[in-house]
Design goal:
- The protein is built from 13 helices and ten strands.
- The chain has two domains: about 180 residues, Rossmann fold, CATH 3.40.50.880; about 110 residues, Orthogonal Bundle (Arc Repressor Mutant, subunit A).
- By secondary structure, the chain is an alpha/beta fold.
- The strands form three sheets. The protein has a six-stranded mixed sheet, with helices on both faces. The chain has a two-stranded antiparallel sheet with strand order 3-4. The protein has a two-stranded parallel sheet with strand order 7-8.
- About 45% of the residues lie in helices and about 10% in strands.
- Strand 5, helix 2 and strand 6 form a beta-alpha-beta unit.
């Protein structure tokens, strides 16, 4: 994201919108963060006529911008509501269509995918929504490729998230795309929220009450994070946890919604990103320090997770960190 001018994020609020997602967007994009030492987002709320009654009459939002604010936004967060079958206002759909037509980045949180689909911007594209509404979404919008079991879907200039808490995951993903991994990590620490949940993780994870107080993976994850530059294997992690590899795999799926190997690789890529953001020019050093081993593996894993080569990633984010 260019540091010459602020990236403008506008969130549309419609009648019946859910306050939680409004709060998430305000927290992530609207609050000033001088401790980060960089220009942050220019954030605004808008609604038809400058006001909207929130879900269940919790409160009425007033005194915000009208829908013309959408026409000046770089990123537009569309309305969602607990009852997605109550369609968005025609003026809201028109604003979303205009934003799509000029190439703005569009974001749908939770049931916001229904708004995007109603505006016609998801036809032939990938998306997700709250698992509860997946079948309804499919029946209403069969031309959209729905991925119902993931936290969020990044389809380039259109992004969608699952249930309410996944709005935080997608928001942090956007910050990582715009500002790099270290800034996203700093924001997640400020929120006291885990940043490791990637979009491909499952929406709904069964978490039975543990039989013993030390059943959490936290001690093992902390131990592994301190040794990412060393040889680590799933078998080695299982041995450290004093369980079989199969049991470790089940525990990772239950607690994190991912596999041990996928978690380990994601953590190593995060270390590589941090080194590149600090301007490290030697890819062999980055590969060794992150535990990815070879420059070829570094290139493969970084492109798979960020869409960028190591040199392109460093050029984009190291300059922004200066």
């Amino acid at each position: 994201m260019s540091q010459g001018s602020s990236h403008r994020v506008v969130m549309i609020v419609d009648t019946g919108s859910n306050p939680f997602e409004l709060g998430v967007a305000t927290e992530l994009f609207g609050l000033r963060r001088p401790e980060l030492g960089r220009r942050w987002y220019d954030f605004a709320l808008c609604a038809a006529g400058g006001r909207a009654d929130m879900h269940a009459g919790f409160f009425t939002m007033s005194g915000v911008a009208g829908l013309d604010a959408v026409d000046r936004a770089d990123t537009v967060i569309v309305p969602n509501r607990p009852d997605p079958e109550a369609g968005p206002a025609p003026a809201v759909l028109a604003a979303v269509e205009r934003a799509a037509g000029r190439g703005a980045r569009l974001v749908g949180l939770c049931t916001g995918a229904f708004t995007l689909a109603a505006a016609g911007v998801l036809d032939g594209r990938r998306a997700t929504t709250h698992w509860r509404w997946a079948e309804r979404f499919r029946s209403c919008f069969p031309e959209v490729t729905l991925e119902p079991d993931v936290l969020f879907v990044d389809d380039g200039d259109v992004l969608t998230s699952a249930g309410s808490a996944a709005a935080l995951d997608l928001g942090l993903h956007l910050i990582r795309r715009d500002h790099g991994a270290e800034i996203a990590n700093a924001v997640s620490r400020r929120l006291v929220f885990a940043v490791h949940r990637e979009g491909g993780q499952r929406q709904f994870i069964e978490r039975p009450v543990p039989d013993v107080p030390d059943a959490s993976l936290a001690p093992l994850l902390g131990w592994a994070r301190e040794r990412l530059d060393r040889p680590l294997s799933v078998a080695g992690l299982a041995s450290r946890a004093a369980v079989s590899p199969a049991t470790l795999h089940r525990r990772f799926q239950a607690e994190l919604g991912t596999t041990p190997l996928a978690w380990l690789t994601a953590e190593r890529v995060a270390v590589a990103c941090a080194l590149l953001e600090r301007g490290e020019p030697r890819l062999d050093v980055v590969a060794r320090a992150s535990g990815l081993g070879t420059t070829a593996n570094l290139r493969t894993q970084l492109r798979r997770r960020t869409g960028l080569s190591p040199s392109a990633y460093r050029a984009r984010f190291a300059r922004a960190s200066g």
